[in-house]
Write a structure and sequence with these properties.
The structure is a single chain. The protein has a domain of about 240 residues: Alpha/Beta hydrolase fold, catalytic domain (Rossmann fold, 3-Layer(aba) Sandwich), CATH 3.40.50. Helix content is about 40%, strand content about 15%. The protein has 15 helices and eight strands. Strand 1 and strand 2 form a beta hairpin. Helix 9 packs across helix 10. This is Arylacetamide deacetylase isoform X1.
Length: about 400
């Protein structure tokens, strides 16, 4: 009898974690389901631990991910070392083959909702299909023949905005010093920044800040943003509405990431879930995220755009980050956007952040920025570094091809 009950429970659990509805267009569905199941297991463990009062949701996920970090280990193609740029930990990847000229330089900023991930992250065994950053940086350094700087930053819930932005900006400024570039053999005319998800958010934000900083003489040649999170004002854009059951990143999880970026106060998360967090006095900012004017017709779910219901002024006063351009780069005015460098943006069809990227593409194009937009019709959040998928290889190769031509 005991064995029968155990077998039944096991079957139910396997069915629960393996049954993940996927859009028909997604390639290699069982491979995606299998890897996404680990994400589901990790988030369920974290939710259960939080419910019992054992540990904060994000701290549990951080603990699971620490088991998957690797030391800086060089291989036959790349020398890997760790140091700090202005007290910010970074991991540097240097190609071993000799170069007769100065190399490209690329600063990579990892994703993870401003709460998870690190430059050290290597595998996907427990909870993540997305954070294979050590492997990605090695591959990029070798294939691009570039010095890749993978930067860390303080994570929520221990650290909140603007700590993440400030860490990345300090690291970038340090790298862009003439003597530092000379030390690593980097051509100051060929430096770029890149990042995925929350890392794409930080990459976009620091690129905007850099063009306004008179003390930094060396500017970026390119920015490459991989399904970036760019705004926290409207959590009901069409892709958020569609994304309750998208692979890897659901609407509720993205809202949790956004709210944790600013505070551990769950009141903000509740208001953001209701899309009632932007106060009336900040409603003018909604013009920058008005998807009815910024999205292609095929993505508009309603004929008439309606502003979100105004929220409490108290939330914005206590946690002003969600209306700050340093946290939400889509809020930048056109005068700032006009001066941005060549830009590459990846968006995925089955991604709650799809519309953030699409709106940024439109706004940059409107002010004359040279933008290359790669929309992946069968893509989903995390697919860029999803190991073992043909889709991932195609996305990475297109990303690399663009960097080779433009950096």
């Amino acid at each position: 009898m005991g064995r029968t009950i155990f077998l039944l429970i096991s079957v139910v659990l396997v069915a629960y974690y393996v049954y993940i509805p996927l859009p028909d267009a997604i390639e290699e569905p069982w491979n995606v389901v299998w890897k996404t199941a680990f994400v589901k297991i990790g988030t369920d463990l974290a939710s259960f631990g939080e419910f019992l009062g054992i540990s904060h949701f994000m701290e549990t996920l951080q603990l699971l991910m620490r088991f998957q970090e690797v030391p800086p280990t060089s291989d036959e193609n790349v020398t890997v070392m760790e140091t700090a740029f202005d007290s910010v930990p970074v991991r540097i990847y240097i190609p071993k083959r000799k170069s007769m000229t100065l190399r490209r330089g690329l600063v990579y900023i990892h994703g993870g909702g401003w709460c998870l991930g690190s430059a050290d992250f290597h595998s996907v065994f427990l909870i993540s299909a997305e954070f294979t950053y050590d492997t990605l940086s090695r591959w990029t350094a070798h294939k691009l023949d570039a010095i890749v700087v993978s930067t860390d930053y303080g994570l929520a819930p221990k650290h909140h905005f603007p700590r993440q932005f400030e860490d990345v900006y300090r690291s970038l400024r340090w790298f862009l010093q003439k003597d530092i570039l000379e030390k690593y053999g980097v051509d100051p005319r060929r430096v770029g920044v890149s990042g995925d998800s929350a890392g794409g958010n930080l990459a976009a934000a620091v690129t905007q800040q850099l063009i306004q900083d008179p003390d930094v003489k060396i500017k970026l040649k390119v920015q490459a943003l991989i399904y970036p999170a760019l705004q926290a004002l409207d959590t009901n854009v069409p892709s958020y509405q569609e994304g309750s059951h998208f692979p890897v990143l659901t609407r509720s999880l993205m809202v949790r990431f956004w709210s944790e970026y600013f505070t551990t106060d769950r009141g903000l998360e509740k208001a953001m879930n209701l899309n009632q967090h932007v106060p009336m006095e900040s409603s003018h900012l909604l013009q920058f995220v008005n998807w009815s004017s910024l999205l292609p017709e095929r993505y508009k779910k309603s004929p008439v755009y309606k502003n979100p219901t105004p929220g409490s002024s108290e939330l914005a006063q206590k946690y002003p980050g969600f209306i700050d351009v340093k946290a939400c780069p889509l809020l930048a005015n056109d005068n700032i956007l006009h001066h941005l460098p060549k830009t590459y943006i990846i968006t995925c069809q089955y991604d709650v952040l799809r519309d953030d990227g699409l709106m940024y593409v439109k706004r940059l194009q409107n002010v004359g920025v040279h933008v290359t937009h790669h929309h992946v019709e069968d893509g989903f959040h995390g697919a860029f570094a999803f190991p073992g998928l043909k889709l991932s290889e195609r996305m990475q190769n297109q990303y690399l091809s663009w960097l080779i031509k433009n950096l």
